[in-house]
Amino acid sequence: MPKYRIVTPAGASFTVAGGGYALESEALEGLNAEIVEAPTDTAGFIAAAKEADAIYAKGIPITKEIIDSLTKCRIIALGSVGVDSVDVKAATERGIPVTNVPDTFIEEVADHAMTLLLAGFRRLVEQDRMVREGRWKEGRPALLKIPRLMGQTLGFISFGRVARAVAKRAAPFGLRMIAYDPFVEEMLISENGVQPATLSEVLSQSDFVSMHAPARPEVHHMLKEQHFRQMKPSAVFINTGRGPTVDEEGLIKALQEGWIAHAALDVLEVEPPSHNNPILRMENVTLTAHVASASARFDEARKRRVGHELALVLQGKWPMSCVNPAVLQNTALRRWQPIGMGRGPNS
Q1: Higher confidence at residue 132 or residue 345?
Q2: Sign of the alpha-carbon torsion through 273, 163, 200, 176
């Protein structure tokens, strides 16, 4: 009989062909642990996971109802940066750490954000279409309306790991950079060659507005119609964060009425989008299918990280990336020992 039972919804999300749990299991070797798939409906999952030692969250929302049914769970582990699929508040109330993989594919997302910036600015999709449709002579006149990139202003909304990596890539292009993030110290923003700014300053001064806010209830529809009205008519809006942080109806109106020039989006409010979403038919929009984090390294790195987090907690140690660190102060968890000298939760 395995000592530890890790339950996960059947099927996989964000995965490559082949499936299986060999990569997650590398870190679990010697712990007598097994990963068991459970039905994806709420009732079926609750029945299978009630006495699980850990939950490997993917594919379905881990709701308060599910969390409150758990009797032995010591960790809910996610293989993504975003944690919006888990009711973190409910997990915290139950003293269950929730972990994610916040630093596994930062470089890929930053590359993609910079790609969308350049593609949107130089109207790459539109230029490609002109060539394919025999409109060769229209290409140059279209770009004669576009200023040079050097000296333009790139504004960040939220200045976490990805935004900082984008800033590093944008600097050699000669972009002036400003950022709004009330949760990041101004000195840290400045150290990255970026000027701290208010949200209004970012919106009104930027030629490119790059959205990086995470999917949390407090930032749902953070950007609404009134925010797009503050932007320059020539501005490009880029989103590689989360679709629900933007009121999509407001963005669509801004694009239709010319309040902004272009949007380059890897994420949408509803994914995949409905076939009648107007964004799909707009020529002033560049789209990718929520793929910014994808690379040959993506699947292996995140799966190994999930296994590592599971192994740490099941051995009574601090997880590396606990998103609800207050839970680690819970009396029931004081038996845990740090991994190394001076190490604490999320350090």
Answers
A1: 132
A2: negative
Q: Which residues are catalytic?
A: 242, 271, 290
**Residue 61 and residue 80: Cα distance in Å, rounded?**
13
> Could you give the 3-state DSSP secondary structure of residue 246?
strand
pLDDT tens digits, residue range 246-293? 999 999 999 999 999 999 999 999 999 999 999 999 999 999 999 999
Enter the tokens of residue 114: 């910079």
Query: Backbone phi, then psi, for 168, in 5-degree steps?
Result: -65, -40
Q: In what order do the strands lie in the sheet with 98-99?
A: 33-38, 4-9, 54-57, 76-78, 98-99
Asked whether the beta carbons of 156 and 178 are under 8 A apart, the reply is: yes
- Per-residue pLDDT at 16: 45
> What sign for the dihedral angle of Cα 222, 224, 230, 236?
positive
* β-pair partners for 33: 4
- The larger pLDDT score, comparing residue 299 to residue 135, is at 135
Q: Long-range CB contacts (< 8 A, 24+ apart) of 78-83?
A: 78/306, 79/14, 79/302, 79/303, 79/305, 79/306, 80/14, 80/302, 81/105, 81/214, 81/293, 82/214, 82/215, 82/242, 83/214, 83/323
Domains of the chain in start order, with CATH, are 4-104+296-333 (3.40.50.720), 106-287 (3.40.50.720)
- The full DSSP string for 122-175 is TTHHHHHHHHHTT-GGGHHHHHTTSPPSTT-EEEEES-SHHHHHHHHHHGGGT-
**What's the token pair of residue 246?**
């933007």
Q: Give the pLDDT score at 326.
A: 72
Q: Which two tokens stand for residue 155?
A: 């504004």
**Residue whose C-alpha is closest to residue 295's, from 16, 12, 11:** 16
Tokens of 83: 């944690």
